[in-house]
Each structure stands twice: as structure tokens, then as C-alpha cells.
Structures
1.
Amino acid sequence: MKNKAVILLSGGLDSTTVLYYALSRKYECHCLIFDYGQKHKKEIKTAMKIAKMLKLNYSVIKISMPWCKSSLVDESLEIPNHKTIKKGYVPTTYVPGRNTIFLSYAISYAETIKANALFLGVNAVDFSSYPDCTPKYLQAMRNVLKALENNIEIFAPIEKMSKTQIIKLGLKLKVPYQYTWTCYNGTKRPCGTCDSCKLRAKGFKEVGIDDPAIKKSSGK
Amino acid sequence: MKNKAVILLSGGLDSTTVLYYALSRKYECHCLIFDYGQKHKKEIKTAMKIAKMLKLNYSVIKISMPWCKSSLVDESLEIPNHKTIKKGYVPTTYVPGRNTIFLSYAISYAETIKANALFLGVNAVDFSSYPDCTPKYLQAMRNVLKALENNIEIFAPIEKMSKTQIIKLGLKLKVPYQYTWTCYNGTKRPCGTCDSCKLRAKGFKEVGIDDPAIKKSSGK
């Protein structure tokens, strides 16, 4: 029997690399895409485009968190950048409980289609101030799956990689980075100044190649 | 500072008793009500009515699980009763991942309003075949909260009680059982034959009083 996996796909660099990794491991991949009220829908569209391109099953789930005060969803809050984020503090881009909500839907989906794996693009290196991206959080979620006795394993293949290592892995797996969307803002082209853009740029710089997503739109 | 709690409220006998228990412990209670595509909306309306009656904050969250094949949400499946459920099997009323999804929203809500407690009506005695109602599942979820370092505790005060014990506790706390809705079906009056109705009836019989919800509608 073929191994089946549910992939949490945001259309960003990390989760797309993880999707290509799971495919390279011969998993039959089913993508879960979340619409959690992001200020822009570019993320969702990008994720759908990638799933369609690969002819994979996917489901887009709308999540409402009326109480949510993250700058990713609240129009009244500005998205911070490296200069405005204090070390040791959780940035306002943190969406409370987000990864647990994502994972719980993934568990439901995986149990239903009898998948035996969940793949996540969680990364503990770059976003160490998010409490739901730490290794001990992931381990706790693995124990939840054990308690549910559903034989589903959580894989976070890029968990301990730097952005540079992730990009190197992705290039080997032929990830079409020109299609991925990393920016927190919904501008036509990546803003280049948000936290997420900066990390991505740093990664490509260290690998020593141009970011194909930027290259593609460099005509301005 | 007053203790704040998020209560998962379905409007049923169990969760309503738990709400009254949390109130008796002087918690400022915020109710979370889920619309997960139940065949009938009576459950949701009942929960809202109870929250309003007590003048409590509440949030109704719509959850979509397009893959879900539970008989509670799938029109093509009949809701089983005691006679049709085989021992050791998970009944078709099980909604895959449901409690994890509910809890994950509760975590998000509680983190945002800085609550320090979650109260659940989970019961391990009557529904022992649901994998997300077991003591080891709850313990695993408690460890997730520990990993998130949010100082939120999970309380499941009726976890190990029989239906009879729950009703006795509720009567002491003056729970208005006439308003609670337990039946899996959305008929005008409780069907009396589904799993959930049978358990409730057995409980009231053992306590030695009439179910006020049945009494109320006994005029037929």
C-alpha cells in the first residue's frame, strides 16, 4: 500500500519545499490550505496553484478566529520588521494557537483518508520566538497522535535547518521557487522589508543565487 | 485578578453541567460554541440560549471538515443506537479529530483573552470508544499546553463520572436541565432512541427523577 500524507501547504518557500520532499519520498500527497483571514489572499492562491500544478488533491479550509489580534489578520496592526521586533518577545505576527488549529484539521483529514503521515514546514531556527514552532511543542503534538492511536506520524523535515539549508534542499528537489510566496504583505511584488522577506533574501544570498521570485518580477 | 475560563459549550447535559461547575468555582466564563455541520442546529441554538441566559460572553465558530464522514454530519449515514454499535468499535457518530479541533480553537481563544483555564465536558465513562475522550488523550493535550508555556490548565471535572453522578452534581448546582439538548437528532422533542438519549434517560432513572426536558414536552 502506498504511503499517504497530508501536507500543510501555505505556498511559501518552507512548506513548498516540504511538499517536494514528501513527494520525493514517494508519498501520495494531499494538501491542506488554510484561509485564516490573512490580510491578503495571495498565500492561498499560490498554494492552490502549486497543488494544481502537481495535480494533487487539496482542500481549502476557512478558519475564523474572531478574537484574533495578530498583525497578520488585524487591519489596525502594522506588520513588524526585524528592527521593530524585540529579542525574546513574541512578535505581533504570531497568531495564537494557529499551528495547533492547523494540525488539528490535519489530524481530522488524515484520520479520514487513512493517511499515515503529516508533513509540516515548521522551522525552529528562524522563528524561535513563536511558541508553537519549538521542538518541544512538536514532540507534545506527536504524543497527542500516539494517544489517539491513529498511527499517524508527524514529520517536520526542515525543523532544524537554516533558510540556506532549506533552499539548498529545495534546489536539489527542483522546487519552483519562482511560484512560492513568502511575503507577509499582499503587494504585487514581495515588499522586501518584512521579517519573512528579509529571511528569504538572506537565504538566497548565502546560497549565492538570485531569488527566482524576485528575478521574475525585477522588470518593475 | 479574577480567574478566567473558556468553556466548550454544546448545550448538552454534560457541558452545561461543566459550565455551572466553573461558575460555582468563581471563574469568569467565556463560552465557545461550535457549528461543525451538525445535521440539526438545535444544539447550537440551545448553547447560545444558555450563554445568553447567564449573560456570558460567547463565540460561535463555524468549522468545515469537507472530508468528514461521521453520521452526525453526513446525511447519507444513519445515527446508530445501542443495538447497532459493536463493542470495541468506534461508532459512526465519531467525528475524526473533533475534540482536537475544538481544543485548538479554545487554546487560541484562551491565549488571546489571557484565560488560565479551559473547561471540557469530556467523559471517559460513557463514550470510551471515542479515542479523543480518553484520559491519556487529555493528558497529552495538557502537555501541549505546557509546551506552549501559556499557563492554561485543562479541567475536565466530569471526566470520570457516570451520567448519574453528573446529573446529581448538576442538580446541586441548579443546572436548568429543562433547557439542555442531548439528542443526536434534530426532532422537535428528543427521539428517545439514539445513543445519547438512552444514556441520559438511564441517568435520570437512576437518580430517581423525571428528566425535566422530557417532562416539559410530555403534553405531545
Note: The radius of gyration of chain B is 17 Å.
2.
Amino acid sequence: MDDVVVRMLESVPLKDPVLVEGLPGVGNVGKLAADYLRDQLEAKPLATFYSKFFPPQVYVSEAGLIRLVSNDLCYRKARRAGERDILILGGDYQGISPEGQYELTHRVLEVAHKHGVREVFTLAGFAQGHVVETPRVLGAATSAARVEAMKKLGVVFSRNDPGGGLIGASGLFLGLGRLFDMEGVCLMGETSGYFVDPRSAEAVLKVLAKALGIELDFTDLESKAKEIDRIAQKIHEAEAKAPDSPAQTREDLGYIG
Amino acid sequence: MDDVVVRMLESVPLKDPVLVEGLPGVGNVGKLAADYLRDQLEAKPLATFYSKFFPPQVYVSEAGLIRLVSNDLCYRKARRAGERDILILGGDYQGISPEGQYELTHRVLEVAHKHGVREVFTLAGFAQGHVVETPRVLGAATSAARVEAMKKLGVVFSRNDPGGGLIGASGLFLGLGRLFDMEGVCLMGETSGYFVDPRSAEAVLKVLAKALGIELDFTDLESKAKEIDRIAQKIHEAEAKAPDSPAQTREDLGYIG
Amino acid sequence: MDDVVVRMLESVPLKDPVLVEGLPGVGNVGKLAADYLRDQLEAKPLATFYSKFFPPQVYVSEAGLIRLVSNDLCYRKARRAGERDILILGGDYQGISPEGQYELTHRVLEVAHKHGVREVFTLAGFAQGHVVETPRVLGAATSAARVEAMKKLGVVFSRNDPGGGLIGASGLFLGLGRLFDMEGVCLMGETSGYFVDPRSAEAVLKVLAKALGIELDFTDLESKAKEIDRIAQKIHEAEAKAPDSPAQTREDLGYIG
Amino acid sequence: MDDVVVRMLESVPLKDPVLVEGLPGVGNVGKLAADYLRDQLEAKPLATFYSKFFPPQVYVSEAGLIRLVSNDLCYRKARRAGERDILILGGDYQGISPEGQYELTHRVLEVAHKHGVREVFTLAGFAQGHVVETPRVLGAATSAARVEAMKKLGVVFSRNDPGGGLIGASGLFLGLGRLFDMEGVCLMGETSGYFVDPRSAEAVLKVLAKALGIELDFTDLESKAKEIDRIAQKIHEAEAKAPDSPAQTREDLGYIG
């Protein structure tokens, strides 16, 4: 079996497309953002990536149907002047080993490269360890010009954050992307790190929308954020009553989103 | 050394065979069922799979003879109208790493594909965490039609179970099977998860027998179930007397079956 | 880099040679025996195996010279009627992962096969968990004829030992050896499992010497056994005085041999 | 993706160059020394090694620019009679698995071999477990002649240290180097093992400078050593006041250098 099995679902010519990556991670910010972007833009499936670097797992839908875990590349062609063709990478998992991270990222970049990608945006969460009321968006980039361009969109480039660098797909897509002569930016929404965080995903997407010249309706994401707020509030109240055993409830929360 | 070494033991033409998989796992339900099916149908060895994704281990028989751990594919040709040719995969281990799970499953599916397999039944246990008097059989499938067909045989498709999907060979044979254009069903017998569970294996096999139009004699499996009951009863009594140290006894029980 | 790098040190024709394997393991019995055999027979280096499946380690001699960890195959041609050509595999480590165990064993067997090996003796310790005054030699074999032949040499084939089979090189050389049409026997010297055990190695070698029709002088091995006895005695006395902290001394003992 | 991706940055003919390796490890002695040597000699980038055997990580500079973790080979041509061309290998990580250690070392040695390297110096720390006021330099080598030559430069070849051999890149470059017919020496600066240790790096570099006939200015390294001394002193005082919780401060110290 190939390390990564790529199933091309469609053959479509793209014009200078930008690649947007958002996979599960801190606060699930990247995945929430990428999935929401895909839904809002009505992006269509282009390729599916199966791999032995994912867990040996299938998901079962409510209807009882199985689906092998994967990463998925969707595309959305520009619809009006000022827009660009977009590729969106989402999925169930990042590679579950360092080797897997490299192989999967490299394979996706190969496919993106063949479709003409020269620019990458990666979306992620940045764990602050405390509740963040109004999440800022931190950035890292492959060139000084991009740092400046992102600063104009409100992205914060902090001297100390992220101190130890970025670990995982969002950093690697930029790092390995350089081997494909791609430039790019990582957008990291601040988040507590304890919950899935739609509000942080929204902050990230707002920057991305400006950068890509697209318009997004955030109604659904804001509903989801309020739902999380309600549950967090409940947990808060439960903890006030019984401060010793909030663990279970908190874990439940992890599955929402 | 090849990752997986396939030893073909016989060359036999099969007609639209169905593949039945049952490897060690929760309650050993899948393995118990597959081994019992093989014995009852007097299935014959077709291929042996050795692999570096198994432990570096040989078993020693009571006569002092060694045997390298393996997975084993047996076949049984249809004997009367209404029956189908059957391939049964059993063995000592599932692959001991995610990569191994994918590689082994893929390799077995290749061999099955060459023999014309288009349909797969995977057999497994579903851990409920408590004693199950009358195990139900839960299901997951690759198509809505199969879900409906299985419901008619009494299989339960629960909205919430299995919540996190299936991990291991029984899910993977269906998930990767799709890459070989195979359809299939996973049959999961409810079990406590604490013992090997012949009764759950029997429940699973009864559904399978109906689905395949074959008849099975369950006498031996029921004897084994009663043996486990006796031991469980003894443990229960021992625990009643000395509730603090049942661990050793319980572990002993794990080897029965 | 190849997974296993084989350095052939000599080209020598061998006549129906028998392969004897003894690598580090329980009580270091196998390694002690194989190294002693090599020294007694004045066997000469034939091939060195380096591998990424060993630790990334060099040993430093007392003179300050480094040596990369390896497995080593030596040979000794028959010197008189009744003797056979012998290949001896020893070394610093077994493969440090299941995959490594398979790859290394397979690679050594390939080299052995090219030199005409059809029979393998593997030497190992069998941990009893308590002090063994007069170690028996337990056996496992690839054929009933070999079981019978070994019984005549005093080897014990126990119905229950080893219960869970053999894990590691000594089992794998026989298990994978079958893929090369080799037959063989595993000789396991009983040992406590707490110390390196020259006395157990001697028991194993005495059986092997009879099986191969060679004569060995055990003086040096018996000296080593007595040295271990003295140290064990000291530990015993130290424990009698200060029963709570024997760990350090015992660990020291582990390096002797 | 190749296991190791080599980016050649320049094509330069070298004359009998010596390879100096210093990667992160005990007390960061090797990396401190190699980086300092590179800066002092104004060595220029020759090749970059990316690999799936490194963590999937990018570093972010204070300016917000990302850089994929790597090993880096620099060169410095001889500037006057008596000097030699030098290659220096430094980097962010050693391979993060035994397999990775072997593959990366082998790949670097291949590149070095193509550039004519026949001699290797590896730089490392040797953990003594206690504060070392005046670090000695311990040695290990590939030949008796080199042991003698190093002794004349003050290197200590101890009968017992390092007892268990060398684990990691510094040993492996010599061990695998033998497969490329390279000779070499490992220079290990004594260090406590608790801090990054510029003073130990200086001791190692002083030996190396003599061996290579080059002159180095140690001012900057001594400043760094004094900075560490000041921090160590602060920790000492803090521990004197609150002896129970020095862990955090000590960890902070680990990042200095």
C-alpha cells in the first residue's frame, strides 16, 4: 500500500489558486475555520487522501454508514473580479507521527503544486491557557513583505509568541511549502486551549476573508459560538456547586463543534 | 524482507466469494466467531500472511513444535444451491501499529480481490463496560441498502453506537475495501469487554449464517460459553469473599477460549 | 542507507553448515553461550551486520577505540570426522523494534541460506523467576523428529513452558527459518532472570556440543559462574544486613559477564 | 518525500576537508561549540538537510519569519598555510528515532564523502552529574594513532568513561564513518548535564583548534559562560531561600545559550 493514497475526484483547471489549510489541532480552530470556509464557499471535492499515517479507523454516520478517515481537498473557482481560485484542505486528523506529518504534508503540497498553488494560508489555534474574550490573530510568514501585509489586516506579530515555534501541519505546510517555492502565512487565533473555539475560528476567517477579497456570512459560526458559551456557562455553574468533578463535563464539551 | 510475506498454499478458483474477517479484539468476539466458522465449515487453508507488523513471536504447541505468528486465509466452496463460496480470515494478531493495520489489511484485500471478492463481513465485539445477558448485534455498513438488509436480520443500527467510529481491522477492512470496490458490513456483538465472550460470538454468527444462507451447529460454542459462565461465577464468589484482589483471577480468565 | 548493512569479511565455502544463534536476552544465556562457543572453537569473522534497527551507539574500548554496535557472524570449519561446519551469530543487540527483529533475522538467514545452512540451533534463557540450582534445558523445535532427538539428549519439552510462546530472535530464527526451508531447535536454559547466568549457558552448550558432536572445555565458563556466585553471595549478605537497598548492587551485577 | 531532503546551496571544490560535527545534546556542548566555530570562522552555507526524522516543526524569528527545522552543513576554506578546509555540521535536532539517527548521519556522511572528507571530529558533552569547575575533555577515537595524538593535546582517555559507550550523533558519525573509510575523534567536554555549558564548549574548542591549527577568539563564549554563571548563582540563592521549588527556574535556564 502506498504511504499516502490520493484519490482524484475531479479534473479541473485552476488559475493561480491559493491553498487554505485547516486541520484538527488546538481548540480545533483551524478545522472549524476551514470547514466553515468550505461550506460558505460551497467548495467542491477535488481529492481525498487516505494514509497509513492516520489511525486505522472508520467513522460511522447516524445512518450506520462507514467512512474511512481522510484528509480532503476541495476547490472553489473565483466567481467575480478580485476573487481567486481557492483550494481548501480539511480532514479528520493530522498525521499521527512526525514521519506521517511530513509525508502527508508533502503529498498534499505535490497535488497543490500541480494545480499551480504558489501561496498558502494555514489556519490554527494558539493556546493561551486562559479564557480569551476577544481573540487576536497572531501570525507567522515566509517573507517580510507578507508580515507587513498581514499587519495591515490586524494580524499581530509578537516577538515572543509562538516562542518555541509551530509544531504540526500549520507550520509544516509553510516550511515544506518553501521546497515547492510557495510563500505563505500562518494565522493563529488566540484560544484558551480548553474548548473548541468557534469565536477564535471566526477571528481567523475574518482576516483570511480580507486577505482573499471574499465575503463570508458568519451567522452560523456565531450561533455555534453562543452554543459553546451556554455550555461553558453551565459547566461554570456546575463547578461552582461541585468544584471537584468537572472533568467529565468538560470532556463532553470537547466533542461539540 | 517484504513488509507482508504471503504464502499461497493452494490455487483454487472461487465464484463470487464473500470474505469474512475475524481477528483478536474486544472480547475476542471476532476471532472466536471466525475460528468457529472455519471449523464448522471445514474451511481449508488458502494463504498464510507473515509480517514484521506482527510481534516477533512463535507459539509452541504442547508437542513442542513452533509456529510463527500469522494471519490465515481459509476457503470453503459452496456445497449446495443458495450457498456462496466463502473466504475466512483469522489469525493470532492484528497489526501492532497503525501502519501495520493498514498494510496488512491492504495486502489481505489484494489477495481477496484477486479471488473475486466483492463483499466483506467483518466480525467484532462491542464493549459495553457491563455484563450483557443477551447480546444484541450492532452494525455498520458501506451502503444504505446493506443497512436495511441487515436490519431485517435483527441487526441494530444505533444512532450513537459506535460513537467514535471503529478502530482496528474490522473497520479498516470495510474502509479500505471501498478502494477495491468492495461493499460490506461490520457485525459487532455486544460484550462486557472483560472476558472472552463465546455467547457474543454466537449472536454474531447467527446473523452471519442467515445473511450467507448457511447452517451452523452451535453446540461447541455454547459449551464454551457455559465454561466461561462457570469461571465467571467462581470469580464472582471469590470476589464476594475477598473483594480486593480479583485482578489475578480475572487475568487468568482472559486466556480461556 | 540500507535497513541492514552487511559487510562480508571473507569468502569461504562451507559444507552443510549448521547455524548457531545466541544474542542478548534473558540472563544473557544465549549470548554467553554463543560467545563462549565462538572463543572455544576459535571461529573466524565472516560477516558483520550494522543496522538502523540497533541503537545509534558505539562502544568505547578501554584503549579508547570506538566500535559501532553490530551483529557478527563467525564460521568454523569441521576439523575431524563427525564434525560439521558451524556458523555462529552473536552480537550486541537484538533488533530494538518488532520490525527490526524481523528484518535483521531475515537478513542473517539470507546470508546463512547462501552459505548452505539447512539447520539452526538457537540458544536462549528461560526465566523462572526464582533461583535455579541445576538448570534444565527446555526445548522447542520445528519437527517432531527433532523433538524426539533432543529428548534423547536430555532436553525437556514441557507441556506448559513456554506458555505464551517465544518472543525475540531465538524464536524468530526458527519461525522465519521455515521460509528458507530450514529446520531447527531452540535450547532454553533455565535461569532466575535476575543475573547473567553462565551456569545456564553451560547447560545449554553441553546439549549443543552433544548434538553437534564437538568437545568443549568449560573451565572458563565455570570460573565465570563461580565469580557470579561470589557476587551473589555478597549481595545476599548485604541484603541480610540492609534489606531495603539492594537495588544498586544488583544492577552492578547485571554488567558482569 | 525522501527520508532526508538535501538542498545543495553551493558548489565548491574542497581539498582534503575535515568534518566537524556538533548537534544538540548533553549540556548543548556540541552545538554551542560547532555554532561558535562556524561564526568565528565565518563559514558559509553549503547544504541544508530537511527530514521526516526531525520534529514537524518550524521556528518563528522575532520578525515573524518561519524556518523549517534542519541540519546545516557550512564550509570554510583554508586561509593560510597549515590550515585545512573545514566542513561544520550543526542544526536544530538530532534525528528523533534510532532509525532517524542512522539515516541522517549516513546522508550527511555521503555528502561529506563526495566532498573528500576522510577525517571527522565530533563534539559533545559528557554528563558528570555534578558541577564541573574546570572541564576536562574526554576522548574516543577510531585508531590507536589518533588516541595518542589526542593525548598529546591534553585529551583524557579514561578506562571507564564513557562506560556504556556513546549514544547519538557524535558516536554514530565515527561508527558509520568507518563505512566510508573515514577516521576520527570524539571530543567530549565534561559538564554537569544540568545547564547549557559554554565553558565546556570552550574546552572542547580549544583542543579542536590545536588539532586543526586554527586560532579562535573565545571572548564571546566566555561572556556567555559568565552570563550562565550569574543565572546559576541566582538560582543557588533562590534555592537557599526556598529549597523546595527550584525546578521552574532551572528549566528556564535550560533555554539560555
Note: The two ends of chain B are 33 Å apart (CA to CA).
3.
Amino acid sequence: MEPFNIKKLAQALNLSTSTVSRAFRDNADISAATKERILTMAREMNYQPNHYASNLREQKSRTIAIIVPELANDYFSQVIHGIERVARARDHHILIYVTDDDYEKELAFIRHLHNGRADGIIMSASGEANDHTYLKNLPHQRLPLVFFDRVYEDIACPRITTNDYDSSFQATRHLIKQGCKRIAYLAVNKNLSIGKTRMQGYIDALLKYKLPVDDQLIIDCSNSYAENSRIIKEMLQQLQPDGVFTSVERLAFATYYACYDLGISIPGELKVISFSSLEIAALLNPSLSTITQPAADIGREAARMLFRIFEDPALAGSQEELVLHSRLIKRHSSAVDF
Amino acid sequence: MEPFNIKKLAQALNLSTSTVSRAFRDNADISAATKERILTMAREMNYQPNHYASNLREQKSRTIAIIVPELANDYFSQVIHGIERVARARDHHILIYVTDDDYEKELAFIRHLHNGRADGIIMSASGEANDHTYLKNLPHQRLPLVFFDRVYEDIACPRITTNDYDSSFQATRHLIKQGCKRIAYLAVNKNLSIGKTRMQGYIDALLKYKLPVDDQLIIDCSNSYAENSRIIKEMLQQLQPDGVFTSVERLAFATYYACYDLGISIPGELKVISFSSLEIAALLNPSLSTITQPAADIGREAARMLFRIFEDPALAGSQEELVLHSRLIKRHSSAVDF
């Protein structure tokens, strides 16, 4: 089949190619009837205007890039859904990039996106990023960036976050009220601001309820499942905590597996609570108590923020922050009646 | 900051713009030293060639579109990871589109992709697609399509599948050997080929072991959680099966919730097995027996197939099929010793 092009479409309709082209660009100087006639014929012929040619003229890709540390996680898929709904309503596509928590990949993605492939970026920063000056040197007005969840404090960009300090404080207080006196805190990267904020909520709750803060019980885990399994088992055996608060859900899963292996009963001997948006938290053995972030709302607000920047590029350099609230959901993993 | 363009880069290096442009296109007629000099300077200046302009010349986007019915599912995130690894090694990007099992979205995505935004599509077809003649009219040689998992039988495209018939047969036989006599089969869309194949494996296992095939026990569920919950509870109460085999994991979750609500013990009163790649299947209460597809391998092979088509476009219209094998993993939800 010979490709159908804009010239042939114009000929078939007895119109100029520039009229047809203007119809595709939604130009206001074409009558609704003519536009309808052109689009109907185009649909019938299975014709779509060449994306790259028209983007070159408009310098717009109508694409939003989403950069996330991982995909196999209900939190990120819910955020992506939230973004997608807003994007689709405004006829934008989304591009999803997964860093596997690898800072080098994040850097490569962002550099690459600065070639016009996307109009804006919504990103949750990757765990191992310790130096990110490269981001400061990029022209954010040309390719705006909105952070969610994991942010770099020193980069001037709007951000959508949750009340992580309060949530951590509440989770720790909940374990204390359930009788825990030695609560371990498992983090992924203490250097990220979100890691620090969450840790501070944990520490302040201990102080408030006059429990000792034991540095040994604050544990920096890794991205390797095998390594975390070893770290957690060692911690459980040597330090014998009576509660564990994990900052990401995969550390709660690792804790469950470790307890199964070591024959430690949850919640009898160890109470567990985690940051998590897992939709089947109630189906776990035992059901997992969680701090659940409003993931879909976070995605929706991040997308709305990006569209506001498209309309008012000056916002790109603001540190505007929208803080949404998480919920503490008590389930069996932190129950007393076992 | 004034944007840095290719002309300024060429001036700074005292080279012609066409030499610089050829360096970015990896043209062989430039010396390695000159190329290195150009790329180093470009990196220092944070310059990337305009993606759309260079794609217009090459007519290549170096992008692979992945269309999946859902994201919040370990199977699809593992497949995407498998695709991504192959794509990245060949310096291609991936675009992810989620249909939410909605055929209209699938159609809109594919139409849109035919405008040059991607070089090829890897797709698992959406559940509700009953008429897909539109796909036959698209020029697959220009935008090749590789199916995985859920395919349309009548569309001539390469496909990566798993041994669904055998797997279903094995899962059903496993429940029979565990003592089940009334096994319900929960499907999402019986009209899709994968639904039919899986159902046939179930039916043939019943026949082979001389159990009656009761049409009432073959249940077509929906995409709505609330509706499925109602359907499954009604089925459990009215038909009193002693086994449930679910074709997708979210129906297993719905079955668990229904059993919790109705006080039906798994596996004591009801044994459950499901197609699922859930990484925490062992953490469920009780741990879930699964048929687990080699999801990452499926993604890898689908991507390799697409790159083979890029090299040999004639393959685009072949029905070449690669069949990978799933594994039956027995856990507590189908155990006898309870």
C-alpha cells in the first residue's frame, strides 16, 4: 500500500495542503465544517499527520515523561494512572522511564529528554543520587520538571509531596501504643530528603514517648533483595526488636520472609508497619498495617502542576509545594490481640 | 539563557554544521577523534541534537511502544522490564500505554502511533476487543506489531506466547488430585483467544478425569472490582464449588476477599490456584498456588523479535510464534494437609 500523504488528502478534498495542515494543528481560522470534513476523510484513509514534521513546526511533542525508580509497586502505578488521566484529558501522551533506583540511568534519561522528546518531566528521584548538580545546569523553563514523593531539596522546581514527617511520627507512635519498646527503622537511602524526613518523624516519636534512640536500630538497606534479607535477619537475631517500621513496602516484604524463615511470629513477637500503597495489604499473612499515600491524587496534582507551568513558564523555577495527607491503616501486623 | 544550537556548536569547534550533524547520526565517514571532540563539546554545553529534526531526516524515532491492558500487575511490569533491557542495549526508548482493558483506548493509541511516534509496537491485546478489523488495514510493514500473551488470532503478526493450554490443564489436574470435584473457572473475557485456550485446558482436564463440565461453574467476570465481588460471592454461595481456578490474579484476590467475608476457609473448604506472576504470592494468607509465566523472558523475546523485524521487514507479516513455558508452583491455597 502506498503511503497516503497530506498532499493526496488535500487533492481528494479539493483543498490546499496548508488548509489541511491548519486543520490538524487545530488552527482557529478554519471553519468547523471544513475541519470536520478534513478530519473525517483523514480517519477514513487511516491518515495521521507526520508527528515529527508537525512537532518541528510547533516545537511541542505533546508528551509528558514520567521518571520513576521502580514499576513493580502499586504506589507508582497508581501515581502513573493519576497522571495519565489528566494527560489524556488534555490530549497528551505519557512516556514512562524506570531507573531501577540507579542514578546513572536517571541522568541519561534526563539528558536525552532535553532533545525535544517531551514537553515536561514528572519525576520521583532515584535513591542513590548523591550529587545532582547536573540538574541545576539544565534549562527548566524549556523542559519543566515537577517532583513528586522523592525530591532533591536544592533544585528549584514545584513538588507534590505527602506529610511524611507526621506520618512517620504517627506510625511510630502507633507501634509504641501497641507496646513496642525497641522499634527498628528500615530505610533505603538516608541521604534523600524523604528518607531524612521519615527518619526524623520516627526519632521524634521515640523522644516524645521517652524511648531511647538506638542508632543500631536505624538501618540503611540496599536495592538488592539478597543483601536486604541478610541485613534484616542479622538485625532480628542480634538486636531482637519488638517492632519494625519500614520506609518502603519491599522492606516489609523482606521482613515478612525473614520472620517466616526465623520462625518469628508477627505480630506476637514483632509488630510491623510500612509505608505502602499495596492494594492487597489486607490479604497478607498477617494483613499489613500501612501508611498509605494518596497515590492517584499525587499523580493528578503533579500533572495539573505541569500543565500550569506550560501556561505560565515562570512557575518552572518556583519551589511551590503541595502537601497531600497519607492515612494510617491499622491491620493485624501491628495488632495487640494475638 | 540563549539556546545553544548546532550552528554555534560547529562554530565553536571550527567545523561545518554538516560534519557535526553527521557525528550525531553516528555516520561512519567521520574520524573517531573528530566525533569524540564534537560529542565532548556537546556534553559540556549540555547540547542535544533536536530529536524531531533528526528523526524527520531519518524517519526513525528509536522508540518502541508497549501497549498493555494494566500496569498494577507484576506480570506486566516484569514483561516491561524484559523489553526495556533489550531496548536500552540497542539505544531505544520505550513508550508505555495502558488501556485499562478498554478497546477504544487501544484503538486510539494505535492510530496515534501510526504518525511516526514509534518504530514498532509490542502489545498484549485488551480484553474487550471483539472487532479488530481496523488492525488489518494498517500497514504493519511501516509500523511492525509483535503480540505477547493476549493475541488476536486473525492478525498476521509475530507473537510470543506461553503454553496456556497445558498450564490450564496442569492447574486443573492439580486441583483434581488435591480432591476437588466441583472446580469453578473464572475468566475475564471468554472471547479472547487466550481466554478460550485456557478454558479448553480446564475443560479437557475435567473430561480426562471424568468429572462433569458444568457451564454454571465457568464464569465470565468483569473489569469492575465491585461487580466481580458480587459475582464471586453469589457463585460461592449458590454453587458451592470446592476449587477455584482463576485466569488472572485479580480474580484470585477477589476470591480471597469473598472467602474472608463469607467465612469460607482456604484451602479447607475451597482450594484456589491462579495464573499469576505476583512476587509476594508466598506472603498471602494462605500463600497462593500459581501458574507463573516467564514474564521477563517474554518481554525479552518480544523485543528481540521486533528488532529482527527492523532488520528484515518481511517478518512483520509472518505469524511466527515463540511459545515459552509457565511453571506450576504449589503453595498452601491448594494444599491438602489443612
Note: The two ends of chain A are 70 Å apart (CA to CA).
